[in-house]
Amino acid sequence: MHLGTRIGAALCRRSTRALIGCAAVLPALAVATAAPASAAGLTRVEETCRAVPRLAAVSLGAEDYAASTGIERPRGATELEYPRARLAAAAAAAGIGAMDGPESDYRDAELFTAQARHVRALGFRGKYCIHPDQVALTKREFAPQPAEVEQARRVVEAYQAGERAGLGAVGLDGAMVDRPVYLRAAALLERAAE
After folding, report:
1. What pLDDT does residue 82 have?
2. Cys-Cys crosslink for 5: which of 38, 41, 73, 133, Cβ 3.0 to 4.6 Å?
3. What is the dihedral of CA 121, 127, 14, 9, to 10 degrees?
4. What is residue 78's DSSP assignment?
5. CA-CA distance, 59 to 36, in Å (whole number)?
6. What would the 3-class secondary structure string for 87-142 be?
7. Tens-digit pLDDT profile for the chain (194 aa)?
8. Residue 184 in contact with residue 8, Cβ under 8 Å?
9. The HpcH/HpaI aldolase/citrate lyase domain covers which part of the protein (predicted)?
10. Which of 83, 104, 106, 87 is nearest to 96 (CA)?
11. Which neighbouring-strand residues pair with 5?
12. Using CB atoms within 10 A of its CB, is residue 107 exposed (0-12), middle (13-18) or buried (19+)?
Protein backbone atom coordinates (compact mmCIF):
# COMPACT_ATOMS: atom_id res chain seq x y z
CA MET A 1 0.00 0.00 0.00
CA HIS A 2 1.01 3.62 0.03
CA LEU A 3 1.68 6.20 2.67
CA GLY A 4 -1.51 7.36 4.32
CA THR A 5 -3.44 4.10 4.21
CA ARG A 6 -3.73 1.57 7.00
CA ILE A 7 -4.55 -2.02 6.19
CA GLY A 8 -6.26 -4.12 8.81
CA ALA A 9 -8.82 -6.82 9.32
CA ALA A 10 -12.40 -6.52 10.42
CA LEU A 11 -14.96 -9.11 11.37
CA CYS A 12 -17.57 -8.76 8.69
CA ARG A 13 -20.14 -10.80 6.84
CA ARG A 14 -19.08 -10.55 3.22
CA SER A 15 -21.58 -10.89 0.44
CA THR A 16 -21.31 -10.24 -3.25
CA ARG A 17 -22.90 -6.80 -3.09
CA ALA A 18 -23.03 -5.57 0.49
CA LEU A 19 -21.58 -5.51 3.95
CA ILE A 20 -24.70 -4.94 6.01
CA GLY A 21 -23.96 -3.52 9.42
CA CYS A 22 -20.45 -4.91 9.09
CA ALA A 23 -19.48 -4.01 12.63
CA ALA A 24 -21.86 -6.57 14.12
CA VAL A 25 -20.19 -9.21 16.25
CA LEU A 26 -21.74 -12.31 14.72
CA PRO A 27 -19.97 -15.43 13.46
CA ALA A 28 -18.08 -13.96 10.53
CA LEU A 29 -15.14 -14.13 8.18
CA ALA A 30 -11.98 -12.11 8.69
CA VAL A 31 -11.66 -9.92 5.61
CA ALA A 32 -9.22 -7.20 4.65
CA THR A 33 -10.17 -3.56 4.92
CA ALA A 34 -8.24 -0.41 4.06
CA ALA A 35 -8.53 2.99 5.69
CA PRO A 36 -7.20 6.13 4.00
CA ALA A 37 -5.88 7.98 7.04
CA SER A 38 -4.47 11.20 5.61
CA ALA A 39 -4.99 13.76 2.88
CA ALA A 40 -2.40 11.85 0.80
CA GLY A 41 -4.30 8.61 1.36
CA LEU A 42 -7.60 10.15 0.28
CA THR A 43 -6.08 11.44 -2.96
CA ARG A 44 -5.35 7.82 -3.87
CA VAL A 45 -8.50 6.17 -2.51
CA GLU A 46 -9.58 4.89 -5.93
CA GLU A 47 -6.23 3.09 -6.31
CA THR A 48 -6.49 1.75 -2.76
CA CYS A 49 -9.95 0.30 -3.42
CA ARG A 50 -8.56 -1.75 -6.30
CA ALA A 51 -5.14 -2.60 -4.83
CA VAL A 52 -5.90 -5.92 -3.13
CA PRO A 53 -8.20 -8.51 -4.73
CA ARG A 54 -9.50 -9.70 -1.34
CA LEU A 55 -10.28 -6.19 -0.14
CA ALA A 56 -13.86 -6.23 1.15
CA ALA A 57 -14.27 -2.69 2.43
CA VAL A 58 -12.69 0.70 2.83
CA SER A 59 -13.22 3.21 5.61
CA LEU A 60 -11.98 6.67 6.43
CA GLY A 61 -9.51 7.07 9.29
CA ALA A 62 -11.40 10.23 10.26
CA GLU A 63 -9.30 11.40 13.19
CA ASP A 64 -6.04 10.76 11.35
CA TYR A 65 -7.44 12.49 8.26
CA ALA A 66 -8.50 15.49 10.35
CA ALA A 67 -5.06 15.71 11.92
CA SER A 68 -3.32 15.53 8.52
CA THR A 69 -5.51 18.28 7.02
CA GLY A 70 -5.83 20.55 10.04
CA ILE A 71 -9.62 20.44 10.03
CA GLU A 72 -11.54 20.61 13.28
CA ARG A 73 -14.04 17.97 14.33
CA PRO A 74 -16.94 19.86 15.91
CA ARG A 75 -19.65 17.62 17.26
CA GLY A 76 -22.17 16.61 14.61
CA ALA A 77 -20.73 18.90 11.92
CA THR A 78 -20.22 18.26 8.21
CA GLU A 79 -16.43 18.56 7.96
CA LEU A 80 -16.13 15.00 6.62
CA GLU A 81 -18.68 15.32 3.79
CA TYR A 82 -16.12 15.44 0.99
CA PRO A 83 -13.88 12.58 2.12
CA ARG A 84 -16.90 10.40 2.95
CA ALA A 85 -18.52 11.03 -0.43
CA ARG A 86 -15.28 10.40 -2.30
CA LEU A 87 -14.63 7.22 -0.36
CA ALA A 88 -18.17 5.91 -0.95
CA ALA A 89 -17.91 6.58 -4.69
CA ALA A 90 -14.50 4.90 -4.93
CA ALA A 91 -15.75 1.87 -3.02
CA ALA A 92 -18.83 1.54 -5.22
CA ALA A 93 -16.72 1.83 -8.38
CA ALA A 94 -14.45 -0.96 -7.11
CA GLY A 95 -17.37 -3.16 -6.03
CA ILE A 96 -16.45 -3.16 -2.33
CA GLY A 97 -18.17 -1.84 0.77
CA ALA A 98 -17.72 1.56 2.37
CA MET A 99 -17.58 1.56 6.17
CA ASP A 100 -17.90 4.64 8.33
CA GLY A 101 -15.40 5.15 11.10
CA PRO A 102 -16.32 4.88 14.76
CA GLU A 103 -18.00 7.51 16.91
CA SER A 104 -15.76 8.08 19.89
CA ASP A 105 -18.55 9.35 22.15
CA TYR A 106 -19.98 5.89 22.72
CA ARG A 107 -22.55 7.21 25.22
CA ASP A 108 -24.36 9.36 22.65
CA ALA A 109 -26.72 6.97 20.87
CA GLU A 110 -28.56 9.85 19.20
CA LEU A 111 -25.39 11.19 17.55
CA PHE A 112 -24.31 7.68 16.52
CA THR A 113 -27.72 6.97 14.99
CA ALA A 114 -27.79 10.29 13.11
CA GLN A 115 -24.33 9.64 11.69
CA ALA A 116 -25.24 6.09 10.69
CA ARG A 117 -28.38 7.27 8.85
CA HIS A 118 -26.44 10.00 7.10
CA VAL A 119 -23.61 7.78 5.85
CA ARG A 120 -26.03 5.05 4.82
CA ALA A 121 -27.67 7.63 2.56
CA LEU A 122 -24.20 8.33 1.09
CA GLY A 123 -23.80 4.64 0.21
CA PHE A 124 -21.96 3.29 3.25
CA ARG A 125 -22.85 -0.28 4.24
CA GLY A 126 -21.72 -0.30 7.85
CA LYS A 127 -20.04 1.56 10.68
CA TYR A 128 -17.22 0.53 12.97
CA CYS A 129 -18.18 0.18 16.63
CA ILE A 130 -15.97 0.80 19.64
CA HIS A 131 -18.53 -0.08 22.28
CA PRO A 132 -21.01 -2.99 22.54
CA ASP A 133 -23.96 -0.57 22.76
CA GLN A 134 -23.16 0.63 19.22
CA VAL A 135 -23.51 -2.82 17.65
CA ALA A 136 -27.32 -3.02 17.88
CA LEU A 137 -27.59 0.56 16.59
CA THR A 138 -25.41 -0.30 13.61
CA LYS A 139 -27.36 -3.41 12.78
CA ARG A 140 -30.66 -1.52 13.05
CA GLU A 141 -29.59 1.45 10.93
CA PHE A 142 -27.86 -0.44 8.12
CA ALA A 143 -30.28 -3.32 7.64
CA PRO A 144 -33.05 -2.62 5.13
CA GLN A 145 -36.23 -1.72 7.01
CA PRO A 146 -39.53 -3.53 6.26
CA ALA A 147 -41.10 -0.43 4.67
CA GLU A 148 -38.03 0.03 2.45
CA VAL A 149 -38.15 -3.61 1.39
CA GLU A 150 -41.84 -3.36 0.54
CA GLN A 151 -41.31 -0.18 -1.50
CA ALA A 152 -38.35 -1.75 -3.31
CA ARG A 153 -40.48 -4.79 -4.12
CA ARG A 154 -43.17 -2.51 -5.59
CA VAL A 155 -40.56 -0.60 -7.63
CA VAL A 156 -39.09 -3.82 -9.04
CA GLU A 157 -42.51 -5.21 -9.92
CA ALA A 158 -43.64 -1.97 -11.59
CA TYR A 159 -40.45 -1.60 -13.60
CA GLN A 160 -40.44 -5.23 -14.74
CA ALA A 161 -44.10 -4.94 -15.81
CA GLY A 162 -43.23 -1.80 -17.78
CA GLU A 163 -40.24 -3.49 -19.34
CA ARG A 164 -42.42 -6.39 -20.50
CA ALA A 165 -44.70 -3.78 -22.09
CA GLY A 166 -41.74 -2.24 -23.90
CA LEU A 167 -41.42 0.82 -21.67
CA GLY A 168 -38.15 2.27 -20.44
CA ALA A 169 -39.76 4.00 -17.46
CA VAL A 170 -43.01 3.76 -15.53
CA GLY A 171 -44.82 5.82 -12.94
CA LEU A 172 -45.33 4.60 -9.39
CA ASP A 173 -47.04 6.69 -6.72
CA GLY A 174 -46.45 9.84 -8.76
CA ALA A 175 -42.73 9.24 -9.26
CA MET A 176 -40.79 8.04 -12.29
CA VAL A 177 -39.19 4.61 -12.04
CA ASP A 178 -36.46 4.12 -14.64
CA ARG A 179 -33.53 1.70 -14.80
CA PRO A 180 -31.32 3.37 -12.14
CA VAL A 181 -34.24 3.48 -9.68
CA TYR A 182 -35.00 -0.16 -10.48
CA LEU A 183 -31.37 -1.21 -9.98
CA ARG A 184 -31.21 0.57 -6.62
CA ALA A 185 -34.40 -1.18 -5.50
CA ALA A 186 -33.14 -4.56 -6.71
CA ALA A 187 -29.87 -4.07 -4.79
CA LEU A 188 -31.82 -3.27 -1.61
CA LEU A 189 -33.85 -6.46 -2.04
CA GLU A 190 -30.64 -8.42 -2.49
CA ARG A 191 -29.20 -6.97 0.73
CA ALA A 192 -32.45 -7.72 2.56
CA ALA A 193 -32.31 -11.36 1.46
CA GLU A 194 -28.82 -11.94 2.91
Report:
1. 92
2. 41
3. 140
4. S
5. 7
6. HHHHHHHHCCEEEECCCCCCCCHHHHHHHHHHHHHHCCCEECCCCHHHHHHHHHHH
7. 333 443 333 333 333 333 434 443 323 334 456 667 788 888 888 988 888 888 888 888 888 888 888 988 877 768 889 999 999 999 999 999 999 988 888 899 999 999 999 999 999 999 988 899 999 999 999 999 999 999 999 999 999 999 999 999 999 999 999 999 999 999 999 988 88
8. no
9. 38-132
10. 87
11. 36
12. exposed
Residues 130, 76, single domain; the answer is yes
Domain count of the fold of the chain: 2
DSSP letter for each residue of 4-72? TEEEEEEEE---SS--TTTT--SS-EEEEEEEE-SHHHHTTHHHHHHH-TTEEEEE--HHHHHHHHT--
The reply to whether 138 and 159 lie within a common domain is no
Please count the other Cβ atoms lying within 10 Å of the Cβ belonging to residue 129: 22
- Owning domain of residue 188: 146-193
Please, are residues 103 and 63 in contact by the beta-carbon 8 Å criterion? no
Cα–Cα dist 158/165, whole Å: 11
DSSP assignments along 127-180, one per residue: E--SSHHHHHHHHHHHSPPHHHHHHHHHHHHHHHHHHHTT-S-EEETTEEE-HH
Separation between Cα atoms, residue 19 and residue 56, nearest integer Å: 8
